[in-house]
Design brief:
The complex is a heterodimer of chains A (333) and B (455). Chain A has 333 residues and is mostly helical. Chain A folds into two domains: 21-89, no CATH class; 93-332, MetI-like (MetI-like fold, Orthogonal Bundle), CATH 1.10.3720. Chain A has helices at 4-14, 17-25, 33-70, 91-98, 100-133, 139-151, 154-165, 171-178, 191-216, 220-228, 233-244, 246-261, 265-270, 283-292, 297-332, and strands at 71-74, 84-87. The radius of gyration of chain A is 25 Å and the shape is globular. With 455 residues, chain B is an alpha/beta fold. Chain B contains 19 helices and 16 strands. In chain B, the strands form five sheets. In chain B, strands 1, 2, 3, 4, 7 and 15 form a six-stranded mixed sheet that branches. A three-stranded antiparallel sheet of chain B has the order 13-8-14. In chain B, strands 10-11-16 form a three-stranded mixed sheet, covered by helices on one side. Classes of the chains: A mainly alpha (333), B alpha/beta (455). Chains A and B meet through helix 1, helix 3, strand 1, helix 4 and helix 5 of A and helix 1, helix 2, helix 5, helix 18 and helix 19 of B. Chain A: The chain crosses the membrane at residues 40-63, 109-131, 143-164, 195-215, 244-264, 297-318. Chain A: InterPro entries: ABC_transporter_permease (IPR051393), MetI-like (IPR000515), MetI-like_sf (IPR035906). Chain A: It is a multi-pass membrane protein. Chain A: Residues 1-33 are annotated as: Disordered.
Amino acid sequence: MTSATPVSAPAETTAPPAPERHVGAAPAPAGRGSARRRELGACGVLMTPFFVLMVTVFLIPVATAVRLSFFSDDQPGLGFGPERTVFAGLRNYTAVVTDPTFLGGLGIVALYCLIYIPLMVAGALALALLLDSGVVRLRGTAQLALFLPHAVPGIIAALIWLYLYTPGISPVIEVLGKADITVDFLGVHTVLPSIVNIALWSNLGYNMVVFYAALQAVPREVIEASVVDGAGPVRTALQVKAPLVRSSIVMVAMFTLIFALQLFTEPMLLSQSTPMINSRFSPSMYIYDAAFTRNNYGLAAAASVVLLLCTVALSYGVTRWTNRAAAAEEGAR
Amino acid sequence: MPGRQSRRHVLATIAALPLTGALSACGGGGGDTRSGGTSSTGRTVSSGNGRKTRITFWSALRGSQEVVDAFNRGHDTIQVDFQQIPSGGQGGYAKLSNAARAGNAPDIATIEYPQVPGFAIDGVCRDLTGLMSDGLRAKLLPQALGLTTFEKRVFSVPLDIEPMVMHYRTDLFERYGLTVPRTWEEFEDTARTVRRKGDERRMALFPTDGDTHFAAWSWQAGARWFDTSGGAWNLSLADAPTRRVAAYWQRLTDQHLVFMNASESRQSDAQIAGGAVLSRLSGAWDAGAQMKARPGQKNRWAIAPLPQWDPADPGVGTHGGSTFAVTRDSTAPEAAMEFIEWQVSHPDALRARLSSGASSQYPAAPGLVDVGREAFDRSYYGGQDIYSLFEREALKIRAGWTWGPRMTATGKLMKDGFARASGGQGDILGAVRAAEAGTVPDLEALGLSTTRHST
């Protein structure tokens, strides 16, 4: 899942020159038409793999999911009769949005986002600012140590934490128990923070690197100016550096939001160990359960489309909101 | 900044998609297989003088290998290839669904009663109405056959029917001077005595993973969670008898008169092995499972009828029990049916199964009860004639119970609720209501006519 971010990062940096070249080519004289054709041909060749992949692994599956959500192999009445494929209309969607278990899953993910995203963004930014400020010795080692958990696949990370959370085998619980502290990491109220903890552990280092890279691009003279003006290190970090990496913060927040909405691996694994995580804990788990244990593909497809729409709408909302905020800020200056 | 924004927008959309993609990739395959794949599970092989039909059989039941061996020894024209698979909840049902979807399901699958309607609706089970002989029909207990018959069509043949009984510790009953409770009221009193005298012992367990236990108790009280009258699935999981049962167990758990934890857990194993729990409320089959699991407790257990609500109108529900279905993909349904008929009604089949030493199944064919009575090794239960007890209890099974079309999912929701209740969130009745509320959208999305009647 997280591989989408590294792919997108270069795209963001390499894409801007393309329109420029285009703009440059537009006023070219008609005599250079053949060169232009060659350029278009090269464009076509170079972009074909992208579009082929996009169609096969993106558009076709989405179209299939949408089709599955609207059509159904029905056996009317009790369901034992002969099957016929019918247009089911919004039936699957009605079922999904009236299903208390699906809505409950959405609620849990919303709560998860509210806890996780601020912690993640603030934590990663704080670490990046610390590293950038030069306070930290052994900067390379610290960076590597923080980044390393991200290299651990999500499922392995969940397994490690499952071991640390499970009473009876966890050394952490044992040590705490010796100090007369009883903790149940997998209890009714603690299970969500436990999941947040796993996700933080896995992704904090990665997002810290993103922020750190952005901070490297902050012109040194700006920082020197603030120091000359008498700002201390904390004030420099919070009032000078942080606003300058604003676009990175928005990007990290958005990707974190998108991956958070797809919450699946961690609760799926933890559910082996605690009844407090049920098989429909998050919307993604609901979809998995609907498709593979309830054999209800129409419902699963509709739930996927609903989740997709929620994600797109939220991402769109976040960008609109931050753009407007940025414009307002610029207007105020 | 509009350029940046739209690019981000697209990236966001792409990042959001893997899930939808993965789902529809799998779903697409699912849609196709229903139209009937080409399967080659049943093969006809010419050998020597005659033709031999080979059929495949999947089961998780104890003693199945012995049964298959006995059948193969006595038959030349049909040979059965047996494959032991995990029990349903441990992945056996997922395996069957996937195999049916891929067109390589076995000829015969073992399905427990609660899952029969689901597999029938999904088209895994073949309609056996025409294949089943009248002789076989007559041999089976009507309450058992009723559970696998929908719209007058039989989708699966019952092997065993398991009335819920009370397994109890004779030695501990004696130590505390207890008598076997005959009503639930007496059961509660006994539980109170045990709590008072019993050094951290408890009368029983309310299993938080016991959706089937709870179903059996509700069934006994007269509940009808699903009803198919009027050509629709009518749900009333929280009907009056169920509410009564829920309130009863709520009181027992609130007052700590019974344990409340998962039954399939190390904790529960320890409670039974360590003598912390005085009774187990479960199906007749559990007698054999107990023998196999804890040979050291020989002579300490006996079996009694389940306590009643009203001794004047006795009833029980079933807990466990399996059926055999011929899959729609089978190419040798007649041969498969012949094996099934032999397995559920022939004395040799039951003898072979009981010879494994781990089964006390109560046959759905009453004609076999005598065979079971003779073949079962009574020494573990101090010579108690448990088959005669099962026979009396089986006659009390209330007719009219129907399992739902997505019983695994319904049960799971109920278990989730029980587990939360044990963690201090919600209660038993709430779990039952949540199970109904979470089942309805599922059925509606499947296109089934559905009504709700819980109050």
